[in-house]
Amino acid sequence: MTTENSRHLEAIQDIRNMMKKSTRFLSLSGLSGVFAGIFALAGAYVAHLYIVTIFEHAVAGDRGMLDRDKIYMNFILICAGVLFLSISTAYFFSNRKAKREGHNLFDHTAIRVLINLCIPLAAGGTFCLALLYHGAIVFIAPCMLLFYGMALINASKYTYDDIRYFGICEIILGLINAFNLGNGLLYWSLGFGVLHIVYGAVMWFKYEKKS
Description:
- The chain is mainly α.
- The protein has one domain.
- The protein is 81% helix and 0% strand.
- It has seven helices and no strands.
- It has helices at residues 2-23, 30-60, 68-100, 108-133, 140-155, 162-178, 184-208.
- It is elongated, with a radius of gyration of 21 Å.
């Protein structure tokens, strides 16, 4: 009787695992989070050096480096570079994980994750461009953290539950930054750099190390 009950429990567990795999995107790799964090920290360092250079030229009276549109464009290029590298590594590691587990990376669950992730990100990105247009630069970093956190929470319904807690941490950082304006680069580094590395490492040890 005990053996029969054990078999029933195993069958139920198998059914639950199959249902979870069919409704959730589980090919997301923790290593992609680690590399995204590294790229973000590198981008923040480049931005810091650029800010120092601008300040030095301002003190020296050199107006050639103080063109506002050029400064904005250079910061946008730095962010775009970080985003491109992060997406590229996310695709590489997640695709490798999907192949190793015998799954198709771009299945219906992946599309759901992308849609739920991209809607808040698109809204947040547009809003940040509006802030940049109006010269409200100090609000850009907290807004990026807040919208990114909301995007993660929105997408977590179709992937690992850990993503929700990651998103909550991003929102908390964004709110703290909103009350501590002027240190946007620091909070941006913590949110997109350090938190990504910590989250990616936790995900790798929790879901991928055994495989």
